[in-house]
Each structure stands twice: as C-alpha cells, then as structure tokens.
Amino acid sequence: FVEGPLSGKHVLVTSGPTHEPIDPVRYIANRSSGAQGTAIATALRDLGARVTFVTGPADVPPPAGVDVVRVQTAQQMLDATLAALPADVAVMAAAVADWRVENASGSKMKKDASGAAPVLSFAENPDILKTVAQGTTRPRLVVGFAAETDDVTAHATAKRGRKGCDWIVANDVSPATGIMGGSENSVTLITDAGAEDWPRLSKAETARRLAVRIAEALR
Ligand code: C5P
C-alpha cells in the first residue's frame, strides 16, 4: 500500500453493470462501462486505502493493487458487498439492474415454430446501496450515485433521502452529454450541506477530487 491520507482505511467500491440472465446465452443489463467506478477505486488506492472492488462485467479492466471480486448478477453483488463489510467507506458506483428475470430458462430458449415470442416476467432486485446505508454494519461514509436525464439535482437529493446514504454523486447521462461510455464526467455532489456543481472533468480527475473529499470527511 502507498502511504496517504487513507492509509489504514478500508473502502468498498461497487462498479460496472450487473447482468441478469434470460437463459444461458442472453441477459438484460444497464449501460455501464465501469470507467468511473474503476477510476474511483484507483484514486482511493492512490491515497493509501485498502480497496475492495466488487465489479460486474465491465468494459475496462479493474485497477491493480485492489482486491477484485467479480460478479454477474445483483444478488451476487449484494452477497459480495455484504461479505466485504466492515468498511470505513462505501462508494456504490455500480449500475445495478433494477429487475431480474424471474422465469429465466436453464437451457437456451429456441424460436418457436409458431412464431410466438417469449414472455419474460421480472422480479425486483435488492437495493444494495440502501441495504448497506441502512444496515447494522454501516460504513461511516456511504456514497451513492444517481444517473439522471432531467432535474438532476432534485432527483438526486430525493434519492439521498430515500436511500439513507450520506452523499450522492449525480450526473446527467442524457445522450447529448456523451458521458455514458465517454472519458469525461460532469457531476453534482449532494451532501447534507446541499448541492455542489463540479466542472466537466475527466473521469480520472472527478475520481481524484472525490477521493480527496472522502479523505477530508474521514479526518
Ligand atoms: O435507484 P437508483 O438505481 O437510481 O440508485 C442509484 C444508486 O443506487 C447507485 O449508487 C447504485 O449503485 C445504487 N443501487 C444499488 N442497488 C440497486 C440499485 C441501485 O446499490 N439495486
């Protein structure tokens, strides 16, 4: 570990999408490259933290020097997250699928000769952020994310209350922003003191600023 303001601290980071199987070869998922979560884990590591990085199937490789736990589904992500506690800080950057396919098939579904399309039914996935923020082994600082396409600050502020987390990092993921899958981000940090608009920065710089804020909050 490098020496830094987060030396001796354990930080849990969730990142990437989850994949919810339809059958062995098909799934539903959220759009998430895992780039911002990976950058955050990197920045926290660079400030000296011991990082547990729970990641769904992301487009970018996980950082070196962190404990990587690879998962596919939301249920697996919840189990891995709870197994990683206790932690001083949790940063929940994963784009968790809200629903899983309740009638997933154990074998590959075949096209029906009659042309009938399959009907999927969905069950709600556990809310990992809420479980951690309202759980008994609650980290001192719990940070959630909010990807919104309109009224970003209002929705994210409401989400902070609903989830019971300390901070929300909100971003506008409207297609026109190019943020989804891109290398830059433009976030609003929601804390108990209100909303702070950060400038458009690289995801790496956004992550470094967030890591510094986390270190300050723990001081
Ligand atoms: O409710 P929504 O998905 O918009 O909330 C986003 C925040 O909640 C993110 O921090 C995300 O990682 C977390 N989340 C979660 N488990 C879910 C859904 C969202 O941890 N099932």
Automatic annotation (TrEMBL):
CTP binds at residues 98, 108, 126-129, 145, 159, 163. The keyword RNA-binding does not apply. Residues 11-219 are annotated as: Phosphopantothenate--cysteine ligase. GO terms for cellular component: phosphopantothenoylcysteine decarboxylase complex. GO terms for biological process: coenzyme A biosynthetic process; pantothenate catabolic process. The keyword Protein transport does not apply. GO terms for molecular function: FMN binding; metal ion binding; phosphopantothenate--cysteine ligase activity; phosphopantothenoylcysteine decarboxylase activity. Residues 6-216 form the DNA/pantothenate metabolism flavoprotein C-terminal domain. In the N-terminal section; belongs to the HFCD (homo-oligomeric flavin containing Cys decarboxylase) superfamily. This is Coenzyme A biosynthesis bifunctional protein CoaBC. The chain holds residues 179 to 397 of 397 of the full protein.
